Amino acid sequence: MARFLHIVAIGPLAGGAAGTEDRCVTQTAPTPRSPRPQESPHAEESPARTGPRIHPAWWVAAVAFLVLIGAAGFRAAPGVLIDPLHEEFGWSRGGISFAVSLNLLLYGMTAPFATALMERYGIRRVVCGALVLISAGSGLTVFMNSQWQLVLCWGVLVGLGTGSMALAFAGTIAGRWFLARRGLVTGVLTAGGAAGNLVFLPLVALLADGPGWRAAALAVSACALAVVPLVVWVLRDRPEDLGLLPYGAGEDYVSPPPPPAGAARRTLGALRNASGSGVFWLLAGTFAICGATTNGLIGTHFVPGAHDHGMSEPVAASLLAAMGVFDLIGTVFSGWLTDRKDPRRLLAVYYGLRGLSLFFLPTLLGDGLHPPMLFFVVFYGLDWVATVPPTIGLCRRHFGEDGGIVFGWVLASHQIGAALVAFLAGAIRDATGSYDLAWTSAGVLCVGATVMVMAIRRPAPPRPGPPAGPGPLRAAPSGAGG
After folding, report:
1. Owning domain of residue 70
2. Residue 222 has pLDDT above 80, yes or no
3. Residue 228 is part of a domain; what is its CATH number?
4. Which of 133, 138, 161, 199 would give a disulfide with 220, using CB separation of 3.0 to 4.6 Å?
């Protein structure tokens, strides 16, 4: 990971360094000759002004990536445990799915408030508290003997914890620490969710199939606690805390003012302002379909659905994790495309292809691996959360500095859709004995999302903002938002 960050960071590093050394070097053109000032009469100042070879923004992004890996893995673990819990306690799949749907709902509804809390109280405090909640919720499940306890632990505690480290957290890190390559960083951080499935799902499935689901729950609890020291050590709220500019910031960059007091008030105010725009409702509606067809349906029910066709749970979980590998590639590539192409057209392609693949899924499931099933895994993986960078980009372009909080509310709609479909798909399985109706209905929803996203108007030029702020300085951050 460090090597990757170093390679990605090389490009604008000289420009960023020049911005930090501007007070002692009067010309910006000879930045490639940066060693020369060390031989000048002011050589005693050069050690203090020489920045690190890799901008700290990349290390912050690396830790955020690790946190998002954990958040996704912790949230996805209950999907692998549906059948073991059904077999041990006799609970219906619909009842177990209700706990998962509550987890997904709180994951989404917590996100906008968590974003505002991070701005008010700091990223480290919020993330550390979230990790402790996840550890407690997962660890306490080993003592449960009633279904309401599953709802409390996995539904409430783990849902609140993972929601505090949701994709809005990725938008906050990218927005504060990066001006250049912001879309790419958003894509990489978003892909942390896919990597979380890759790391955790096979492990949880193997533990559930071997020592039992309690061992899997304890493993999740321990992993959540293990990340806390790294968060305390590396994460900082803003580059200004280290005396640095955001990655890619130029000489004219001015740090944004501190957020106003009242995190909840600002969060609700951003929702009130955004809800008057048709763009917000189109984004919320399409992202709800995104959540319904990923976390709600495939993420929760693919493993038990494949198991219905004779596939073993570890194999099915490995296929779901393999989607994470291609999701990593697809989301990073989508972030790169978002910096260069119309986000609306990207979303239309993503939703259309996703719907097409879901129509074919009922004919692909079987008791073993075969090329069409592997093709579905690759195809769906590439498309999984490729929708996130364009959606974040549209939020930034249409809602300015409130874009991060607005995306938190859009993400809430994503999880509302996921929660609804997670429950309904389990109920369909209980009622019909098959998931086929759930797969095809989700394909129809994706067709609708394709139509909706093309109804979003082309982003207008950045609004001038309040009179108190200088116009050019306010336009720079939103213009770099990809």
Report:
1. 57-240+260-460
2. yes
3. 1.20.1250.20
4. 138
∠ CA(337), CA(360), CA(102), 5° rounding? 75
> Largest Cα–Cα distance of the chain, in whole Å?
82
With bands split at pLDDT 50, 70 and 90, how would you rate the model's confidence at 347? Answer: very high
Tokens read off for 319: 């296929």
SS3 sequence, 109-170? HHHHHHHHHHHHHCHHHHHHHHHHHHHHHHHHHHHCCCHHHHHHHHHHHHHHHHHCCCHHHH
37 domain residue, yes or no: no
Q: Is the residue at 252 inside a domain?
A: no
Is 202 inside a domain boundary? yes
**How many alpha carbons lie under 13 Å from residue 260 in its C-beta half-sphere?**
9
- In contact, 132 and 226? CB cutoff 8 Å: no
| The two three-digit tokens of residue 424, written as one number | 């309904």
DSSP assignment letter at 81: T
Amino acid at 409: W
DSSP symbol at 463: P
User: What are the backbone dihedrals phi and psi of residue 277, each rounded to the nearest 5 degrees, phi first?
Assistant: -105, 135
CA distance 405 to 105: 17
304-325: burial string, b at 16+ Cβ within 10 Å, e else: bbbbbeebebbbbbbbbbbbbb
| Token pair for 259 | 């957020």
> Considering the entire predicted model, what is its pTM?
0.63
Rounded average pLDDT over 357-372 = 86
Structural domain count of the chain: 1
d(CA 234, CA 63): 7
- Spatial neighbors of 145 by CB under 8 A, at least 6 apart, are 89
26-54 per-position pLDDT tens digit: 333 444 444 444 444 444 443 334 455 77
- Tens of pLDDT, residues 190-205: 777 666 766 777 788 8
Angle subtended at Cα 397 by Cα 244 and Cα 163, rounded to the nearest 5 degrees: 70
Cα separation, 75 vs 100, whole angstroms: 9
- 431 burial (CB, 10 Å; 0-12 / 13-18 / 19+) is exposed
Contacts 24+ apart (CB under 8 A), 13-17: 13/53, 13/54, 13/55, 15/180, 15/248, 15/250, 16/51, 16/55, 16/180, 16/245, 16/247, 16/248, 16/249, 17/51
Instruction: Report yes or no on 50 lying in a domain.
Output: no
Q: What is the mean pLDDT of residues 252-280?
A: 76
Q: How many residues does the chain have?
A: 482
461: left (phi over 0), alpha (psi -120 to 50) or beta: beta
Nearest-CA neighbor of 251 among 16, 19, 13, 2? Answer: 19
